[in-house]
Amino acid sequence: MPPPPPRVPGGGPSVQTAAPWALSRMPAPVGAPRSATNTGLSTSEVETVDFDFGKSDGEGPAQEFALPQKRILRESDVQTFLRSQSCRDYLAFVKCLCSKIVGVKVTEVKQGGLSETLRGLNSILDAVSGYVDQVPPQKHTLRYGNPAFRDWHAMVSDNSEDLIGTILPERLKGAAPELAYYLSDSFGNRTRIDYGTGHETNFVILLYCLAKLGLVTEGDSQALVLSVFNTYLKLMRRVQQTY
């Protein structure tokens, strides 16, 4: 699975709102050609092929899973990732989902026709939304954000492994700790009390991992975006309005 976003001592995510592999580009001096100051690869330049939903990593011999570790430490690591098969597969997955929803309205997705995995994902998001009801905003003097967000986020993190386990078959239960990382990191930064595109990327990586495990199929593509991801965005709007 792809490398996770960097983390800081104490277990909390580091300061980040962009995707974990987003390239840092410095402006070129006046008159200098762009290639003279930046020869790195960007995500738009990564060559991809069509994503193969039928090529599952969750079949065959027992799979080994591991807790994500910080692997992107410097600019050269970003370039290594951008040239990796994991990056190509992930971007192909995103492009595939985008192509499936062209001209399709959210209302065209029938909730009653969702697969078991997609219904389970929506149930997980409903549970996380329920935690907002359990952790009301606090009176505070912070300039940005409500400290109750940290309590809410801790509740999500504490329960993320159990939540993700509800959609995993017995043969894939070992993936729960790894997937739980991406789930909990989809809901913002507990330390900074913020939320951005890097956290949204974590949620899409979770969906990508489920596709790689064979739990999400090509037939789920439209509903994965227009139902599950849409539900996630609605949840995060509620979180932002609350905290």
Automatic annotation (TrEMBL):
Biological function: PPIases accelerate the folding of proteins. It catalyzes the cis-trans isomerization of proline imidic peptide bonds in oligopeptides.
SUPFAM superfamilies: PTPA-like
Descriptive protein name: Serine/threonine-protein phosphatase 2A activator
GO MF entries: peptidyl-prolyl cis-trans isomerase activity; protein tyrosine phosphatase activator activity
EC number(s) stated in the UniProt entry for this protein: 5.2.1.8
Major localisation: cytoplasm
A Pfam family this chain is assigned to: PTPA
Gene Ontology biological process terms in this record: mitotic spindle organization
Keywords (A to Z) from UniProt: Cytoplasm, Isomerase, Rotamase
InterPro entries: Phstyr_phstse_ac, PTPA_sf
Substrates-to-products reaction catalysed: [protein]-peptidylproline (omega=180) = [protein]-peptidylproline (omega=0)
GO terms for cellular component: cytoplasm; nucleus; protein phosphatase type 2A complex
Chain intervals with Polar residues compositional bias: 35-45
Family of the protein in this entry: Belongs to the PTPA-type PPIase family.
Protein's UniProt keywords contain Isomerase: yes
Recorded superkingdom: Eukaryota
